Predict the structure.
Amino acid sequence: MATKRSGEFNWRLELTHPSGRNWDATYHGGAVLDAMSELLASKDVEFKQDRARGDRPHEPAYDGNRAVDADIPPITTIRRF
C-alpha cells in the first residue's frame, strides 16, 4: 500500500505478507509504483521462505530470560575445604 496525505513530503509504503510480517518504507518522487515494485523485489526471498513455511505466522523469538520469583529458594553453593 502506498499512501500520501495532503501536505506530506514523502510517500509512505507498506508491504504486508499473509504471514503477518510488515515492511515499511518512505519514498519521495513521482514514480511511486516503481518504488513499490522495488520494495516488493527486495523482499522476494522472504516471501518465498514464508510461502515454503505455508505462510504461517512466525514464532516469537526465544527469550532466555527467566522470571525471578520470591517463592524459589536461593541457590546455595557447597564449599569444599
Summary: Residues 2-52 form one domain.
